Amino acid sequence: MSHTCCEVVQERVQEGDRKVVLAGNPNVGKSAVFHALTGVYVEVTNYPGTSAFNDEERVAREVILAADVVINVVDSAHLDRDLFLTLQLIDMGHPVVVALNMMDEAKANGLAIDVKQLSDILGVEVVPTIAVKNQGIDTLKAALDRARPGRRTEAIVRRLPAGIESPSDALMVLEEDEEICQQYSTARGGQREEVYRLRRERADEIINQVVSETNSGATFAVKLSRFSLHPLGGLVLLLAFLALMYQVMGVWLAQDVVGITEEWAFGEHITPWIVGNVSRLISPESFIGQLLIGEFGLLTMTLAYLFGLLLPLVVGFYMVLAFMEDSGYLPRVAVLVDRLMIKVGLNGRAIIPMILGFGCVTMATMTTRLMGTKRERTIATFLLSLAIPCSAQIAVIATMLAPLGIGYTALFVGFLFVIYGVTGMVMNKVLPGESSDLLIDLPPLRLPRLVNVLQKTFLKSKSFLTEAGGIFALGSVVVAALNAWGVLDMLQSGLAPITERWLGLPRETANAFIMGFVRRDFGAAGLYDLNLSSHETMVALMTITLFVPCIASIMIILKERGKKEGWVIWVVDLALAIFLGGVIHRLMFWA
Amino acid sequence: MTLVETHPGQAFIITEIADDFARLQAIRFGIAEGARAICQAIVPGGPVVVRKGKQEMALGRNLANRIQVKPVEA
Ligand SMILES: Nc1nc2c(ncn2[C@@H]2O[C@H](COP(=O)(O)OP(=O)(O)OP(=O)(O)O)[C@@H](O)[C@H]2O)c(=O)[nH]1
Questions:
Q1: Which of A62, A124, A125, A158 could serve as A143's disulfide partner, Cβ 3.0–4.6 Å?
Q2: What is the ipTM, given to two decimal places?
Q3: Residue A352 has pLDDT above 70, yes or no
Q4: What's the CA gap between A90 and A108, in Å, rounded?
Q5: Which domains are present in chain B?
């Protein structure tokens, strides 16, 4: 999705001994080309950029550097934008093939491109494609064998530092990439902007030579784009979109689908079947038995949680997200909410991890990589772990609040909103440094293609399972072991004073809080059976929601933010949750 | 005048971008100093969206305040 946005889809494989990488700006059709090229395995990466501007781009750059052949996918309808990247790749000295994608859109927009001339100027193969219709893909495949380094920008080559053998390293030193500069222990030469300017000039020159415009009327997409940003129209569209999303994610997936997968499939059939079979071999009371098929066991809880609960939600979420990405709408949402996000020290782009967080906080924490500064990543990660309930939790919360009436639901949402806002504003004040301004390119609005959406969903769900699955399994083993050793019970009685004295809740709720570590919704679910009053339900649910995220997300936070900062986030979050729970307990007596 | 002071539909030439990072990004996207662009939309109190040819780009208000433009005939 946009520059704005997220993911580096990585499908790491090789063709023979060659490693082929797809690189291109957001939404130019990389995934579509990738899937059309079946048989040739490639890695897909968003914006490489010799000099990386955020963590996501740093990852992308590594991928590009390791490639033997780069397929540069460009959007023919936005050649003036994309050619800059093409020239950058060529300047790096990599063997490149250019896929001139979206030729149909270029044509519809009244653009004609002289492909032969473009290829001559660049010195590399240029293949026109319409990836979604499989057009030009065979030619592209064949062209891979003729991939070669192109014609570099002379004025830039002249400026390259002497004594660095690898052309890409030399270019990166010239473009002041921090890491590479350090590697060669050279100081930054202050030439980056000049280099960019030279490249931009060359790109514009080339465009003048090879692109001719036959008409320039406003197409339907351009009009719709204008509407989506209109002060009133944009808001209406956004609300309609959020309502739809709630329906799909909150009602249909979190309740109906999970009801089938988790409660029926796992709860009634798969888990009992596994337990039955395994307990014939291993005693369920033994230590190993508890690790495997106990309450928190690998084959019981981990499996059911991962595949019965998380997977449907994550798949659904990625589908909605892919839809938003492909339609080009997401960056527009970022524009609409920018004003609000600035208040909490973020910019509009941060809406992406926040939206994702309502699906799964673990997954969302990973996408904070797309943000401009470290400071923003810290704020976003903390807000995610504090005030964004994940879909599994929302499902339980909704069921518990519903009987108390709409007033309580409104109060709950209101509290969360205020806590989110105030915490964000405080962090914005106290954290050193400045956050970056919103600056994103808006891809054209278009109707997403189902196949493309499904393929993306599949890839991302798979990489989510591999990234979070292992971590979650590890977490469960730890909890299962603690349980087997009786440590969990000790914790429960140790915590009781806090629950009773400060939060005004029955002693047994401590139980639910501890479960909350394992699974955020588990915590809330543990409150079900306690017969709490409305007041108590509210306090308990608030505390659980603010409470530390589940084990999987704690591990991801530690991995993404580093040990030190990760632990601080964790401890502060925990303390705040308990503190605010008590405050709300007292506030509600006034109300 | 600054970018914030334009109105939707107005054409202009970008004369100065007083932000190092944004200047570089703008060059990447082709909406750099010297480029002729059109104000596409302004979110009240929020970002400004500019268009150059088929390319649209949104700039946060803070940033838009630091961008000087010279109005030209559409
Ligand atoms: N008309 C047309 N649409 C295309 C073509 N190639 C891709 N698309 C559509 O363009 C949109 C974006 O394509 P993707 O393949 O998701 O682009 P991407 O570069 O992988 O996007 P990100 O991963 O979000 O950066 C999808 O809706 C595709 O269906 C094409 O040649 N012609």
A1: A125
A2: 0.93
A3: yes
A4: 29
A5: 3-72 (2.30.30.90)
Domains belonging to chain A, first-starting first, are 7-218 (3.40.50.300), 231-435+451-590 (no CATH)
pLDDT at A500 (0 to 100): 84
C-alpha A416/C-alpha A404 separation (Å) is 18
The 10s digit of each residue's pLDDT in A506-517 is 877 877 777 676
Q: Which of B59, B3, B65, B57 is nearest to A436 (CA)?
A: B59
Chain B's closest residue to A77, CA to CA, is B54
The size of the A-B interface in CB pairs under 8 A is 109
pLDDT in tens, A143-180: 988 999 999 998 888 888 887 888 888 888 888 877 77
Whose structure tokens read 């000049």?
A194
Between CA A452 and CA A459 the distance in angstroms is 11
**How many Å from the N-terminal Cα to the C-terminal Cα in chain B?**
17
pLDDT value at A17 more than 50:
yes
Cβ atoms of A536 and A504 within 8 Å: the answer is yes
Cα–Cα dist A572/A339, whole Å: 27
Q: Give backbone dihedrals phi and psi of A88, rounded to 5 degrees, phi first.
A: -65, -45
- How far apart, in Å, are the Cα atoms of A563 and each of A44, A237, A555, A559, B60? 30, 41, 10, 7, 33
CA distances from A517 to A257, A433, A475, A476, A507 (A): 24, 32, 10, 10, 18
Global confidence as pTM: 0.75
Q: Is A27 in the pocket of ligand 1 (CB under 6 A)?
A: yes
- Preferred mutation among A175, A201, A335 to probe B, highest tally of B CBs within 10 A: A335
A268: Cβ contacts below 8 Å, ≥ 6 apart: none
DSSP state of A403: G
